[in-house]
């Protein structure tokens, strides 16, 4: 009986197939969001309004770059969070291309990045795109 032995080229082929599949699935996931974020609940902040906006209450601050599919996906996911009038959660966004000083001050290493503030203090830091279900867990933790 002949036995099958894995060779080096088998691993190379598996790596190539895995890379292609990941790329296709990632592109599909990003393209599955609506392109319009005009009905967004986010308020655009700048370096002059930032400190005042985060000083009271709780808020999510999205640091983003223009024309980034990943940033649009994260904004879309945040817009899917429930609106709770009892616990007013504010939603802000900052374009790091225009306000690099805020990017440096808050040590933003990449976009999209979300900082969750409560009463002016950073409570959570979210890097990259995360699913709505994880955002809901963070939202519930902030509103307690």
TrEMBL record:
CDD domains: TRX_family. Gene3D superfamilies: Glutaredoxin. GO terms for cellular component: cytoplasm. InterPro entries: Thioredoxin-like_sf, Thioredoxin_domain. GO terms for molecular function: protein-disulfide reductase activity. The chain crosses the membrane at residues 12-30. Keywords: Membrane, Transmembrane, Transmembrane helix. Residues 43-136 form the Thioredoxin domain. SUPFAM superfamilies: Thioredoxin-like (SSF52833). PANTHER family: GEO12009P1. This is Thioredoxin domain-containing protein. It comes from uncultured Dysgonomonas sp. The lineage of its organism: Bacteria, Pseudomonadati, Bacteroidota, Bacteroidia, Bacteroidales.
